[in-house]
From TrEMBL:
<keyword id="KW-0206">Cytoskeleton</keyword>
<keyword id="KW-0493">Microtubule</keyword>
<dbReference type="Pfam" id="PF07058">
    <property type="entry name" value="MAP70"/>
</dbReference>
<comment type="similarity">
    <text>Belongs to the MAP70 family.</text>
</comment>
<dbReference type="GO" id="GO:0007010">
    <property type="term" value="P:cytoskeleton organization"/>
</dbReference>
<dbReference type="GO" id="GO:0008017">
    <property type="term" value="F:microtubule binding"/>
</dbReference>
<dbReference type="GO" id="GO:0005874">
    <property type="term" value="C:microtubule"/>
</dbReference>
<protein>
    <submittedName>
        <fullName>Uncharacterized protein</fullName>
    </submittedName>
</protein>
<keyword id="KW-0175">Coiled coil</keyword>
<keyword id="KW-0963">Cytoplasm</keyword>
<dbReference type="InterPro" id="IPR009768">
    <property type="entry name" value="MAP70"/>
</dbReference>
């Protein structure tokens, strides 16, 4: 019975490693999608500001982008 337990443990370790790799990939995908959504929102804001004929400052674009990134990553 101990040999079977050892074989089972030997098989479980690679499976656990694969599960961790999958979790890391899922987390990276979520972060990438969050950044994409924040960038899209920022571009929409930029486009709206450019229609107003006012020259927006760089800070007016960075602050919402940073806020969106923080919002989507949480």
């Amino acid at each position: 019975m101990t040999k079977l337990d050892e074989k089972l443990r030997a098989l479980d370790n690679p499976i656990d490693n694969k599960n961790l790799e999958i979790k890391k990939l899922v987390d990276e995908k979520k972060e990438a999608l969050s950044a994409q959504h924040a960038a899209e929102a920022n571009l929409k804001s930029l486009h709206a500001c450019l229609k107003d004929d006012d020259s927006p400052t760089i800070e007016s674009f960075l602050a919402p982008l940073e806020a969106n990134i923080k919002m989507y990553t949480k």
